[in-house]
């Protein structure tokens, strides 16, 4: 116990500080990693995120409208982005097989190969490390935490999308 009149740090407060530091470190590390991935792929952040979305789709395809919604872009912004990605050989567009008015956006083999070459080894290494350090019960807690944290980030993103940008000074 501390001296009378001196504040003491409670265990929940200490853990809260550690968690905050750990999350800041993690977010910073992820941002640094993404910056390097962007550099190597020769794209910008929005283009990288679009590639990620397309590559993670079950059919490895999506529509410009879905990309616009996920990325918070206008139709014109998505078109410009897709033009860049197509020029680099990372995506291909084609007409929908049953609705010729719709366009389908697919990742190319080049995009899939480059992301596979760069990202898969990191994912495999991460899983190996986690499996070596944590038991099943701890991994379930980690997975639950990451899921809840991801859901919270989506809520925050949606709130920010509803805020008008600050005016320029």
UniProtKB/TrEMBL annotation:
Q: Lineage in the entry?
A: Bacteria, Bacillati, Actinomycetota, Actinomycetes, Mycobacteriales
Gene Ontology BP, a term: response to stress
Which domain of life, per UniProt? Bacteria
Q: Give yes or no: UniProt keyword DNA-binding.
A: yes
Q: Which SMART domains match?
A: HTH_MARR
HTH marR-type domain span:
12-151
This protein is called: DNA-binding MarR family transcriptional regulator
Molecular function per GO? DNA binding; DNA-binding transcription factor activity
State the organism of origin: Nocardia alba
Keyword annotations: DNA-binding
Q: Which Gene3D superfamilies does the record associate with it? A: Winged helix-like DNA-binding domain superfamily/Winged helix DNA-binding domain (1.10.10.10)
